[in-house]
Amino acid sequence: MAAGRRQKLARELEGRVAFERRAYLLLPGEGQRPAYDDYVISHRKRAAEMEPALGFAIPEVGQPYPRSSLPAQCVAAAVAGSHPEAMDALEDALFRAVFVELRDISSGEVLADCVRKAAVPDAEALVERALADDDCRERVFTEHEEALAEGVHGIPALLVPGYAPITGAVPFEALRRAFLHLVEEQNP
Q1: Where are the domains of the chain?
Q2: Which residue, 138, 72, 78, is CA-closest to 105?
Q3: What CA–CA distance (Å, rounded) separates 86 from 120?
Q4: At residue 131, does pLDDT exceed 90?
Q5: Strand-strand pairing, 157-158 and 166-167
Q6: Across residues 93-116, what is the average pLDDT?
């Protein structure tokens, strides 16, 4: 889920819920979706209507789509390991790059820009190491496979043990009510 909504929910339910970031590869392979099409654009329009404050850009049919989400997830894993305090800012920068600026987050240059925006030192070197790290790539694929096994097939996604995954651009108030219900159910 977008970092801002997750942060807001975590503050409101402080001490009663915990979030664990896990990788999910929207595009695990290279070039699986070469260009934006009507299907993707329709979802983008819906998200823009639901959350206008997030500033979703609406691409044109045929505009190039990000080649893969694997590089961004590898960089996120590297930042989480070395600078966990920067993860919220990195997620925000990655979100803006993809959904507001329509940039390709498989590009090392775009990723380094996102890492810099998250105030992580030596962004270019971190990105270079992350993209060359086969162990990191394997961890990301493992987390992705675990998500698929849990029934996750989209982003953003929340997994609550014992419940079906919550995926997609769910309005904040609906998430808030669901989590309040879960918290009250667990701690009557």
Answers
A1: 3-186
A2: 72
A3: 7
A4: yes
A5: antiparallel
A6: 97
48-68 pLDDT per residue, tens: 998 898 899 999 999 999 999
Q: List residues bridging with 64 in a β-sheet.
A: 35
Rounded CA-CA distance 136/81 in Å is: 10
CATH of domain 3-186: 3.40.30.10
Residue 118: alpha-carbon gap to chain centroid: 15
d(CA 11, CA 24): 24
Map tokens 């997994």 to a residue: 159
Q: Is the pTM of this model over 0.85?
A: yes
What's the CA gap between 113 and 93, in Å, rounded? 8
Burial environment of residue 84 by CB neighbours within 10 A (0 to 12, 13 to 18, 19 or more): exposed
Task: Identify residue 6 by its one-letter amino acid code.
Answer: R
What angle, 0 to 180 degrees and rounded to 10, lies between the N-to-C axes of helices 70-82 and 134-149? 110
Cβ neighbours of residue 92 closer than 8 Å, sequence gap 6 or more: 3, 4, 117, 118
If DSSP states are collapsed to H, E and C, what string results for the chain? CCHHHHHHHHHHCCCCCCCCCCCCCCCCCCCCCCECCHHHHHHHHHHHHHCHHHCCCCCCCCCECCCCCHHHHHHHHHHHHHCHHHHHHHHHHHHHHHHHCCCCCCCHHHHHHHHHHCCCCCHHHHHHHHHHCHHHHHHHHHHHHHHHHCCCCCCCEECCCCCCCEECCCCHHHHHHHHHHHHHHHCC
